[in-house]
Design a protein that fits this description.
Elements: E1 15-20, E2 26-33, E3 36-42, E4 48-52, E5 63-68, E6 74-78, E7 83-87, E8 93-98, E9 107-113, E10 116-121, E11 126-130
Antiparallel strand pairs: 1-2, 2-3, 3-4, 5-6, 6-7, 7-8, 9-10, 10-11
Length: 137
């Protein structure tokens, strides 16, 4: 995938991470600047479904790590603000899984195995969090 449906608009600046969600969507972290980026989600045929630029007003978003859970929720780390975001498969912000106060500094990578969320920090540490996909349980 390189161009949007018009055939001339590039889809990505610098695709940093790619993950195919369990619903077949293709989730891409596109690095658009030194410490800024966008999460772009495409359908399996390459059509843009949505862009996520963080849940902030007037702040840069620096997505680095990306994984999806069994409910097709998207989990993305923000290295700049030390937050871990959870989005619905439609791109709606659900909640922060981890915030700066409880996170390792600069979460850079992420993986999910069953109920363990593994997070690698830019400064060389790894943290493991208990992951509950439904916060009401």
């Amino acid at each position: 995938f390189e161009f949007d449906k018009d055939g001339s608009t590039k889809l990505f600046t610098k695709p940093h991470r790619v993950f195919q969600n369990y619903n077949t969507d293709i989730c891409v972290i596109d690095q658009i600047g030194q410490s800024s980026g966008v999460l772009r989600v495409l359908s399996s045929d390459g059509a843009v479904k949505f862009d996520y630029r963080g849940n902030y007003v007037k702040k840069r978003f620096d997505p680095r790590g990306l994984v999806c859970d069994g409910n097709c929720n998207i989990i993305v780390t923000d290295c700049l603000h030390s937050f871990i975001h959870m989005l619905s498969p439609c791109g709606e912000f659900i909640r922060y899984i981890v915030t700066k106060q409880e996170a390792i500094d600069s979460p850079y990578s992420v993986d999910l195995t069953k109920s363990s969320l593994w997070v690698g920090g830019k400064n060389g540490e790894i943290s493991v969090y208990r992951y509950i996909s439904d916060p009401n349980n």
